[in-house]
Design brief:
With 463 residues, this protein is α/β, with parallel strands linked by helices. The protein folds into 3 domains: 136 residues, no CATH class; 120 residues, NAD(P)-binding Rossmann-like Domain (Rossmann fold), CATH 3.40.50; 190 residues, no CATH class. Helix 1 runs antiparallel to helix 4, helix 2 crosses helix 3 and helix 3 packs antiparallel against helix 4. The longest helix has 34 residues. The protein is flat, with a radius of gyration of 27 Å. The two termini are 52 Å apart.
Length: 463
């Protein structure tokens, strides 16, 4: 069964169970707690429509529907308990606290009843679905399409440990050789090819998980392989030594069989990722409305500074390497790149007088709120680059590919520190801060970067 089908099943059952829980809560609260006659009134109808949607939103924000095929029962229990607790508090204070009651004990009973019913109904249906999902993954051919990288004794040991596990959810489709000599898995699983063609092989075979079974002491080779794989779509598991155990960014994947550690791709929790997108949309919509006078002034300044269009559209590389057109106020004279892509500098003669001020205040970036709403960008994230410069950066720093795992931003940590880069060397310096952001990103850090950006705009100290 496809991932989307499972997501829809969880959404549907959560909605149905939330509606049942609210209906029963409303009935028991009237008849048992308040000793009144139950009737289907306006409050009941409004509640049966709104409350289940509130629960779905809470479950979505906490990541209940993210990577649904990787769900497990303990995680379901944890997510359901925390989600129901937060939701019960929210609903209690918004819908129930202003009700007229004879004594305050009714509030306590109401809250306990709301929490209990929602938790019992939700956990019951979710555990059943999760059990069915896990059993389906354990059937041969239904598990995560997995490739072993390496062909030495270590790789053989991993394969044997996996096969000895009764409950593993990996479908081993083959192995990829690293050094060309170790081929001890030839008679056990299919040989897919050499590590030189790693990206092509992973794409060709629709690989979902990779187990790296090479000597952990080969840190340079290990890091290069991880850099080439780590795009957010393929999960990476390794055999640990003390170096990995102490370096962080790892989590245990199973308590049975082989000791495998999964490399954590993103430091930002799922609920923060969802909240970040909500913040992006809300702030961008408000900004587009409130900044209309600023847009008009900028448009006039661009129009009178030089001939040509007001806006400048340029192809940039965004999330997962997808191409999009970034929207900016034009700050240069027409045909400024006839000789090919060129980076600007502080004394660049191609920049108009109005453009120089707009670049210092970042006003030229304001139209990118449209890119945020369209889903091309975020408010905060690594600055998107052109493919021409990405190719040059990748020659010196292949880890740049990590920056395409998230939506690029209107502003970034690197942008705050360095502003517009004047050469590839400055791009590499700025990239260090963007990579640091990627490993530490959070809502709090985003807000901090936004405040610094606002200060740059107000002080006109942008570079």
């Amino acid at each position: 069964m496809k991932t989307k089908v499972w997501v829809y099943l969880f959404l549907l059952t959560d909605w149905i169970m939330s509606a049942f829980a609210w209906s029963l809560f409303f009935f028991l609260r009237k008849t048992w707690i308040e000793n009144k006659e139950f009737s289907v009134d306006q409050n009941f109808i409004i509640g049966i429509i709104i409350v289940p949607l509130v629960w779905l939103l809470i479950y979505y924000l906490q990541g209940s529907y993210h990577e649904i095929r990787r769900i497990y029962r303990l995680k379901i229990l944890n997510l359901t308990f925390s989600g129901v607790l937060i939701g019960s508090i929210l609903i209690f204070f918004t819908l129930l606290l202003d009700d007229t009651v004879s004594n305050y004990q009714m509030y306590y009973w109401s809250f306990a009843l709301l929490f209990s019913l929602q938790f019992i109904f939700s956990i019951f249906s979710r555990l059943i679905l999760a059990t069915i999902l896990i059993k389906s993954l354990r059937k041969f051919g239904n598990g995560f399409r997995t490739v072993i990288i390496g062909g030495s004794d270590k790789a053989v040991g991993v394969l044997m440990d996996l096969k000895a596990q009764k409950w593993h959810v990996n479908t081993i489709i083959g192995y990829i050789n690293v050094n060309g000599t170790d081929r001890l898995l030839d008679d056990k699983i299919p040989y897919l090819g050499h590590c030189d063609n790693l990206e092509m092989l992973l794409s060709k075979h629709n690989v979902e998980e990779v187990i790296i079974a090479i000597e952990s002491s080969e840190h340079n080779r290990l890091q290069k392989i991880i850099t080439r794989i780590q795009d957010g779509r393929v999960k990476i598991k390794i055999l640990p030594d003390m170096y990995e155990l102490l370096s962080g960014s790892l989590k245990m994947t199973d308590i049975y069989g082989a000791l495998l550690l999964q490399i954590v791709d993103d430091s930002m929790p799922i609920w923060q990722q969802a909240l970040k997108r909500v913040m992006d949309l809300m702030i961008s919509l408000v900004a587009l409305i409130l900044l209309i006078p600023v847009y008009l002034i900028c448009a006039l300044a661009v129009k009178f500074s030089s001939s040509g269009p007001i806006f400048y559209l340029q192809e940039r590389i965004g999330l997962d390497g997808r191409v999009f057109k970034i929207i900016k106020f034009r700050t240069m004279y027409l045909n400024s790149e006839e000789a090919g892509p060129q980076l600007s500098s502080t004394s660049d003669s191609r920049i108009t007088k109005a453009g120089r001020f707009m670049r210092k205040t970042r006003l030229d970036e304001f139209p990118q709120f449209i890119n945020v709403i369209l889903g091309h960008m975020s408010l905060v994230g690594p600055r998107p680059e052109r493919q021409f410069y990405i190719d040059q950066i990748m020659h010196f720093a292949p880890q740049y590919v990590h920056l395409t795992k998230v939506r690029p931003g209107i502003t970034s940590w690197g942008q705050v520190k360095y502003g517009y880069a004047e050469n590839v060397e400055q791009m590499l310096d700025r990239m260090k801060f963007d990579l640091l952001y990627l490993k530490n990103r959070s809502i709090a850090l985003d807000i901090k970067i936004m405040f610094y950006t606002i200060a740059i705009v107000l002080k006109a100290k942008g570079k």
